[in-house]
Design goal:
By secondary structure, this protein is mostly helical. It has 12 helices and 4 strands; from the N terminus they run ααααααββαααααβαβ.
Length: 244
C-alpha cells in the first residue's frame, strides 16, 4: 500500500498530467511549479521519473528518432518518449516488486486486494487509495493493542522533540487518540471515522511492524529516525538512485 500511495501514486499523477500536455517543456514547467505548490512533497518522485527517462532516452541515436518520428518538433518527440517510458515503468512496477520481495508481512491483513495501476481512456487509475475502497477490513485495533508499549514509547519520544513539523504534530495527536480508544476499549475501525488516525500513524506502524532482525529502508529519515530510536529498530536512509 505504501508503494501504491507513494512514488507510484506520484508517477501516475505525473503521467496523467503529461497526457494533457502538448510538449515536453510543459512537464518541466509543471515540475518547476511544484516547488511552491501544496503538492511539492512529490517533486522528488517526479524528478526521479525524469532522471530515469533521460538515462534511457540519451541512448537513442538521431537517426533512430528520425525514422520513428519524422520531422516533428523535438518537444513533441520528447513528450511522447517520456509518456511511453514512464507508462512502461508504472506497469512493470508491481511485477518487479513481486519478483524482488521474498515475503510480505501483513499482520493486520490490510489491502490484500491491491492491484497494479491500469490504463483507462489513456490515463492510469491507481485506486484504491483509501481504506474504504479496499475489500478487506484490517485488524489495526488489535495490532496496536498487542503492541501498545511500542506505540507509547514512540509517542513519548515524539512529544519530547524540540521541533515538530505538521506531520509529526498530527502523528502525536493521532497516537494519543488511538491509545485512548484502546485503553477504554472503544470501537475502532479504519473503515470509519477513525481512518485518518490510522493514516497519520503510518510511519509509526511501519516501524513497529519491522522485524527486530531487519533494517528499515526509508527515504524519510527525518521522521523515521526518532521513531526507530524510540523502539530500538534499525533503519537506513537512502537518496535518489544515480542513473547512467
Amino acid at each position: 500500500m505504501e508503494i501504491k500511495k507513494g512514488f507510484i501514486h506520484y508517477w501516475v499523477l505525473l503521467y496523467n498530467k503529461a497526457v494533457t500536455f502538448k510538449s515536453y517543456e510543459d512537464i518541466e514547467q509543471f515540475k518547476s511549479n511544484l516547488s511552491s505548490s501544496p503538492k511539492r512533497y512529490y517533486s522528488g518522485a517526479c524528478n526521479d521519473a525524469s532522471l530515469d527517462f533521460w538515462s534511457n532516452y540519451s541512448k537513442n541515436r538521431p537517426s533512430d528518432l528520425a525514422e520513428k518520428y519524422g520531422n516533428i518538433p523535438i518537444g513533441e518527440i520528447l513528450l511522447d518518449s517520456f509518456k511511453t517510458h514512464l507508462g512502461t515503468q508504472i506497469r512493470l512496477c508491481f511485477h518487479r516488486i513481486t519478483k524482488s520481495v521474498k515475503k510480505t508481512y501483513n499482520p493486520m491483513q490490510c489491502f490484500k486486494d491491491l492491484r497494479e495501476p491500469v490504463l483507462e481512456n489513456g490515463m492510469f487509475n491507481n485506486k484504491p487509495l483509501k481504506c474504504y475502497k479496499s475489500m478487506n477490513k484490517c485488524n489495526i485495533a488489535q495490532y496496536i493493542r498487542d503492541n501498545k508499549t511500542f506505540f507509547e514509547k514512540i509517542l513519548e519520544k515524539l512529544e519530547g522533540l524540540e521541533e515538530k513539523d505538521t506531520e509529526t504534530a498530527k502523528r502525536i495527536n493521532s497516537l494519543k487518540e488511538i491509545l485512548k480508544i484502546i485503553k477504554h476499549n472503544r470501537p475502532f475501525s479504519n473503515h470509519d471515522q477513525n481512518q485518518d488516525l490510522c493514516w497519520n500513524c503510518g510511519d509509526a506502524i511501519h516501524a513497529v511492524i519491522s522485524p527486530d532482525d531487519s533494517t528499515l529502508l526509508t527515504r524519510n529519515v527525518r521522521h523515521f529516525e526518532p521513531i526507530c530510536e524510540a523502539i530500538g529498530k534499525k533503519f537506513r536512509g537512502y537518496s535518489s538512485p544515480k542513473t547512467g
